[in-house]
Design goal:
The complex is a heterodimer of chains A (about 100) and B (about 260). Chain A is about 45% helix and about 0% strand. With about 100 residues, chain A is an all-alpha fold. By secondary structure, chain B is mostly helical. Chain B has eleven helices and five strands. The chains are: A mainly alpha (about 100), B mainly alpha (about 260). The interface between A and B is large, with 68 and 74 residues. Chain A: This is DUF2282 domain-containing protein.
């Protein structure tokens, strides 16, 4: 399938490695044991990742960020654009064109 | 139908006017209210990316991240109302994003973070019993053709950059200043129990695990990894997979690879 030249590995050496792997794995407590004293609690751990975002996005506090819609773009990448070797290359991305317009 | 289309398009493009036909419940200016809504949509989606890509965010700072994320949100709005795994296209977007070119490792760090998000939400599957493995071991001739199903949370990320060290330094493990970004690292991401783990593995182990994951039999996968010539340790790699409960099913096969 690939261009790599492969050396055949004998079944015996696979068996040896697998035997060793089994003894390696036998030592520590498995994840299953650690799960025993925990319970699943959905919807708590991942704040802001669901659609019930009662914070910044849904209050009028969000309107203070209205700048991001249009001109944040010229605000931000200035510093990093200066570090970029070839800022003149148009890649056909709409966003880059927008960025240049804003910056000019 | 076309009203809905206009509405959706105008939500993502601040240059477009307020869609026609909107009426505010209290008689206030619908164009003004639409702007607020449009802004909330964007802010919420950028926030969703920020919480899925925490380290990426830290690496470039808030202003840059939010501006970059806003461009991405407009180009790739979510296709599912579930935002927990929003951002599948974000790493590739970062890779092609010229202003971020000064940080060539940024896209791979984002890839790692996305794999973590996916691993977090992957299905639970019990590992294969050790009895089944021992039984398989007794059938030595069947080992080269043996195929494995791996845990759905598992992913391998080979990178030209020190993705694991960079990521770990942002979790308080190791010193960020001491990380040399240009050192290649391979990450193994998986969930054990409720915990998503990021483990640095040798590149050959990564090749082996990825081969197993794509359905190649044990013998073939081991050969591909050995062919890298970088001292592939089959026992240690299999041991790691077993230790992390990452092998979920064995599919014996008599056919030789």
């Amino acid at each position: 399938m690939s261009a790599i030249t492969t050396k055949s590995i004998s079944a015996a050496s696979l068996a040896l490695a697998m035997g060793a792997a089994l003894s390696l794995a036998a030592a520590p407590a498995t994840a299953q044991d650690r799960m025993a004293d925990k319970e699943k609690c959905f919807g708590v751990a991942l704040k802001g990742k669901n659609d019930c975002k009662a914070g910044a996005g849904t209050t009028c506090a969000g309107t203070s960020k209205v700048d991001y819609q249009g001109n944040a773009w010229s605000l931000v990448p200035k510093g990093s654009c200066e570090k970029t070797a070839s800022p003149s290359s148009p890649t056909g991305h709409g966003q880059l064109a927008e960025f240049k317009e804003k910056k000019a | 139908m076309s009203t809905r289309h206009d509405f959706a398009r105008a939500l993502l493009d601040p240059e477009l006017p307020c869609p026609a036909g909107l009426v505010a419940w209290n008689g206030s200016n619908p164009a003004r209210r639409f702007q607020v809504y449009r802004n909330n949509v964007l802010v919420a989606l950028v926030d969703a990316l920020a919480s899925n890509f925490v380290v990426t965010h830290e690496l470039v700072g808030e202003a840059f991240f939010r501006a970059m994320a806003a461009v991405h949100v407009r180009a790739h709005p979510p296709r599912s109302p579930v935002l927990a795994c929003y951002g599948a296209d974000f790493p590739a977007f970062i890779a092609s994003f010229i202003p971020a070119a000064g940080l060539p490792y940024l896209a791979d760090v984002a890839r790692l973070e996305y794999l973590r998000a996916v691993a977090c939400h992957a299905a639970d599957v019990s590992p294969v019993g050790e009895g089944a493995l021992a039984a398989q071991l007794a059938d030595e001739g069947g080992l080269p053709g043996l195929r494995f199903a791996l845990h759905p949370s598992l992913a391998v990320l080979p990178s030209r950059f020190a993705v694991v060290s960079l990521w770990a330094a942002h979790q308080g493990v190791g010193d960020l200043a001491a990380v040399v970004p240009d050192v290649a690292e391979t990450a193994l991401v998986l969930r054990t129990g409720l915990e998503v783990e990021v483990i640095e593995i040798p590149p050959a182990s990564g090749v082996f695990i990825a081969a197993l994951q794509s359905g190649r039999p044990l013998g073939r996968a081991a050969e591909e990894a050995t062919a890298l010539g970088a001292g592939f340790d089959l026992a240690a790699t299999l041991g790691l997979l077993l230790q992390k409960s990452a092998i979920t099913t064995l599919h014996p096969s008599r056919s030789t690879p």
